[in-house]
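Example record

One chain of 164 residues, shown exactly as stored in the release files.
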Amino acid sequence: MKLLPSIIVSSSPFLVSLPFTLTDLNRFEDDQPRALWQPPNYVFGIVWPFLYASLFMFNYLIFQNPSISNYIKSFVARDTIIESAFQGLWLYNFRFQENIKERAESYKKSLLFMLSLVFISIYRCYIIFSTKELKPYSLLYLPYALWINFAHILNWQLALGFTK
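Predicted structure tokens for this chain:
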């Protein structure tokens, strides 16, 4: 894969979330309910940059490795774009509403996209760990997969009203 497309695809998870971060749409206010296991807000500011850097390196190193076939690279690129799209849809549907009833509905709507992200991350872990060429890069993807599964638990807690 050429340099610019590999950078764009590798950056897609970050690029999709950037509008939500810049406009503070993904921030919890002090009066909003929080999931029982939700960490303090500052944790997200530490974790997400690390995850985006890790995902970028995962994709970019695969795309730039000449010993990995274009067939495998095309699978990785396709899955990265699909995963980024679902992440964007989850963030869009999870955006916070002023009205408490609308807020609860947004948590429920976002579950579909979060569940899709969980299935995609499990599928990608299976592919990564079962493909000899991708296995060396597995530790770059695994933190993201674990965090998405943790976020899924938090999303369920909010949707079901298990809040603190």
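Notes: The longest helix spans residues 100-130.
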